[in-house]
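My current task is to audit a protein record that another person submitted. My question to you is simply how this chain folds and whether the tokens agree. This is what I was given:
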Amino acid sequence: MHWSIHNKMALFFSAIVMILIIISLTSYRNAFRLFDANRDIVRSYEVQKELEAILSVMKDAETGQRGFIITGDEKYLAPYLAAEASIAESLAKLEQLISANRPQLEYFNQLKPIIAAKFAELDKTIKLRKTTGFATAQQMVLVGSGKESMDHIRRVTERMEKAEAELLEKRISCWKRQNSITMITIIAGTLLYLLLLASGFYAINRFVNDRKEIEAEIRHLNDDLERRASMLERANRSLESFCYSVSHDLRAPLRHINAYSQLLLEQYGPVLDDEGRTYLNRLCSSSVSMGTLIENLLDLSMVSRTEMRREQVDLTSVARAIAHNLQVQAPERVVRFFIEDDLTAWGDSRLLRKALLNLLDNAWKYTANNREAIIRFGCMELDRGRTFFIGDNGIGFDSAFAGKLFEAFQRLHKSDSFEGTGIGLAAVKQIVERHGGDVWGEGMVNGGATFYFTLG
């Protein structure tokens, strides 16, 4: 496979873009993992903070209770009331922080009922102090389980703090490792990016230099092509002039051959035998065919030699006039013409009329065997632009040989079935190309044919 410079550049920069995307995705993934590791560390610190806060709240609650029992002054209950109000929020926050940590949740499920029981005990002693006085409340404190429950709370929180400290150490280690990976990725990605950028600049510079060399070579080839085209144009003019001269000079000898052959048939026909008369008839027929061929060659030469005079041409009127003449020449035929209105084009009126004449005459000729022939002339918009077409329902042709249609002397049907020299479509091609357009045909055997042409 031959790779052009543009394809190589496109492939190179596509590879650069893909590598940069991979680097970006890798860096993003590592940064996201680093963020997750940092978030886990912060969560561990928050868990430790909440455990300390819960233990402090319980101490404040116990301090407030003891102060009130000793003094009976309700202002000492302030720490207790504040602890009672905030403990639920602290527990809820702690539970949320450790929701994904099953071992810590098990400790939490032990801690929560102990704290509830502790507050129930504190509340009970406070109520006794209010109703029965200091002695009863003191006695309950001395014989109660207050110290044991508080110790239980401390043990559970210490276990949770220890477990969280171990987890925090692992998370810090993971964060450090992820931080190193992220930094290495960023540095390596940056270096690779700079390398790719340098490679890109080198490739662009190489592309520019190659492009300059190619442009210089193209200019050289164009100059050579212009010289060759000039030589070819002179050769074509010489060839056309030669063809015209030869065709023109051949007509007189052919007329003599045909005239003398006719005289021989008229004056000496009875003397000749059947075979002799057959030879003379073939000679006359061949001279007539050669004369027609020469006339067509002169027409083809005229197409190339005629100076073009561009103007607005009413193709609809031209086509209808040609169709009328064809019907006048063969009134016995049943042919329906469908010619669109307001078809105009900018070009040489004589050449365009000749192109339409050849195409319509072609359709007329190859629908001769149809009981009811249909010939259409119209216009449509195709990928190539505004396109005219002439279609028929005649015998058509095999599309595999469509490329030969517009070559001089090329015929897809036998000459004894349909008259013609194979020059008409070649002339159409020359006329269309002189107008900067293109012509092509589509057909199907016994399924009709359509010829399309564009004009520049």
